[in-house]
Amino acid sequence: MTDLCEHAPTRRALLGTAGALFAWSLMPRMASAAGARDSRFVCIVLRGAMDGLSAVAPVGDPAYGPLRESIALNGETGAPSLDGFFALHPAMPNLARLYRGGQASVIHAVATGYRERSHFDGQDVLESGQPGPGRTQSGWLNRLAQALPAGERVRPSGGAGGADLLGVGVTPPLVVRGQAPVYGWAPPMIARANDETVRRVLDLYAARDPLLASRLREGLDTERLASTQGGAMKMQGNAGTPDGMRRIAEGAARLLATDDGPRLAALAFDGWDTHAQEGGATGRLAKLLGGLDDALSAFETGLGPRWRDTAILVVTEFGRTARVNGTVGTDHGTGTVAFLAGGRVKGGRVVADWPGLSAQALYEGRDLAPTTDLRGVMKGLFEEMFSVSDATLSRDVFPGTAGIRPLRGLLA
């Protein structure tokens, strides 16, 4: 039960990178019964454990203020009320707008089945969809891609690499790894080579290795598509900064918006481990939430007409302690929040079986007690969005979850 803050890359992550880089060129395209809607699903993983009690504050709970002390939110701090009991962090005006417009919801007091407090193990369980850590090297989104019903293809033509699953990042998140083809994209970390250099390299590969030349052309096409105004993105693709979050979302949205682009995507934003100087309405967490808020807005803008058929799920490995620590931060906890946003979402709701924050209600005397299983949330989404049966989801996508009922009614 010790708070563990591991940050070094694992051997499995490094091996996963190599496998994902070539998966899309070697494997067949997936198919699904897409129906009348051209659906898009995006999963955003917040690594480091987001403080759900600050992101969506239960201001109506009498125990909230005393537990949160100097970082507590209320009407005076500018936190907009969602339903009279919960208030949204003031750093998220775009999410507040979407919520009021019926295109965003909050699921509170949510968690995976994991009850320890190790980042690595918590992220493994979150992204693998397994009951415990270390059980597989595939992620639930990749297995979902494999489980989509046969029939009408997700997209009508092959597109770059022939894959319908987008993994964003130099190291593709575990959630997208597996046997289904993966379309990989990472924002540039260094300046792009000039056109003449690119032409010469392509000519060299075309003469010596046509397959590699073909893959390079596909990569350059992807970069151009994801880039701003057709040029190289002028960015350091740091997924742990507010500006990096926004720019990564802009590039991913452009890829998802194309007629022959991917339909499922996952990306991860780092830096949510707020042990010290977390801040209340302003401060470190506020900056991170502002970056996430801008990323959601970037998806809305970049997807254009595709936004109406999109659902974005924002998740994190676990929550943080209900009580503020001695460094004006919060430590590793259990229950937290998940966000749903998109034109496909039946929004304007906080979905919560609220356990309360009294001393006797806290999990192990320190954390928000989870009352909703995140896997039930995702099972409900995928039943409605992609017509995947509960039996298939419980067996292949989220093994061992036959006893967890899908949370239905989250989509319009």
From TrEMBL:
Q: Which PROSITE patterns match?
A: TAT
Please give the superkingdom of this protein's source: Bacteria
Q: Per the record, a Pfam family?
A: DUF1501
Family matches, as InterPro entries = DUF1501, TAT_signal
What this protein is called in its record is DUF1501 domain-containing protein
* Protein source organism: Methylobacterium jeotgali
